[in-house]
Design brief:
Length: 290
């Protein structure tokens, strides 16, 4: 395994229950991949309040940043005793710190909600920002993942097949690591203006779009390892709705996200955005250069 393949998994921790569950999942995933695990806790506490106040609060029982990463490190090592675990406290905005850490990571793992207290949000702002900006794949632990990456619960990895070759490759690798089939889905729609009122031609436009979807699916899956079991499906409908519905019987949903050089702000398409907010299982967002 070369240096790039040995890049660690990075998991964001903040002391919340979702982030501790993310540590469990990430520890299992790191063992499956054969890579180290790195825990990153980011906050602005020291910058605004100062280390003296932090120490004073620590004496009154309030956990310090070092307490948070220490507890998370112990949890990871208890769960996977042979795992190489390191940790870091960064006094920066969590979004910035995690995206920066992802530049040297094989993947980033985050929970669905941090400690923002904004209970009405379906997805925490940190998780959304990291998934939309990171240069590496980001796995957001939505749904009932039972705190573990393995053994598989549903026995399949689901990938939405669009124009993102990186997402297909990532999904195939995840399925092989877990020893489960890959379910590859290409969603298509027939625009209303292409329908025909003639009874003999009514299904012709739809059949054409379905054939095009099947061809695109075959091309996207060409060259996958021959030992990987692949289930191919073309489905008519809205990609967002189809993939969210299918996520109820998957262990991981993989979607692509285009990254345009020089473009700032959140770079998530509609499908990835919907998956992050509504999927019933963990979601991997895989960046694809435009």
């Amino acid at each position: 395994m070369n240096a790039v393949e040995r890049r660690p998994l990075v998991v964001g921790v903040d002391g919340s229950e979702p982030s501790l569950r993310a540590v469990d999942w990430a520890a299992d995933e790191a063992v499956v991949r054969g890579v180290p695990l790195r825990l990153v806790h980011a906050c602005l506490w020291s910058r605004y309040e100062g280390t003296a106040l932090a120490r004073d609060l620590g004496r009154r029982g309030e956990p310090t940043p070092q307490d948070i990463v220490g507890a998370a490190t112990e949890r990871a090592r208890t769960r996977q005793p042979g795992l190489e675990v390191s940790s870091e406290v960064v006094f920066e905005e969590p979004e910035y710190a995690l995206v920066h850490a992802g530049r040297q990571a094989s993947a980033l793992i985050v929970g669905t909600r941090g400690r923002s207290g904004i209970a009405e949000l379906l997805l925490g702002s940190v998780s959304l920002a990291v998934a939309a900006q990171a240069d590496c794949p980001v796995i957001v632990l939505r749904g009932s993942h039972d705190n573990r990456a393995t053994p598989p619960v549903h026995g399949r990895v689901l990938v939405g097949v669009g124009e993102d070759a990186a997402a297909v490759g990532f999904a195939a690798a995840e399925a092989r690591r877990r020893g489960v089939p890959l379910e590859a889905v290409r969603v298509w729609r027939c625009p209303a203006h292409e329908s025909s009122d003639h009874p003999l031609l009514a299904d012709a436009p739809a059949l054409l779009h379905e054939e095009q979807a099947q061809k695109a699916l075959d091309e996207a899956l060409h060259g996958l390892p021959p030992d990987l079991e692949v289930h191919r499906r073309t489905v008519e409908g809205h990609a967002r709705r189809v993939l969210v519905d299918l996520s109820t019987r998957a262990d991981l949903l993989v979607v692509g996200a285009r990254r345009r050089e020089g473009h700032f702000g959140l770079q998530l398409g509609r499908v990835a955005h919907a998956a992050l907010h509504h999927s019933a299982c963990p979601v991997a967002v895989v960046p694809q250069p435009a």
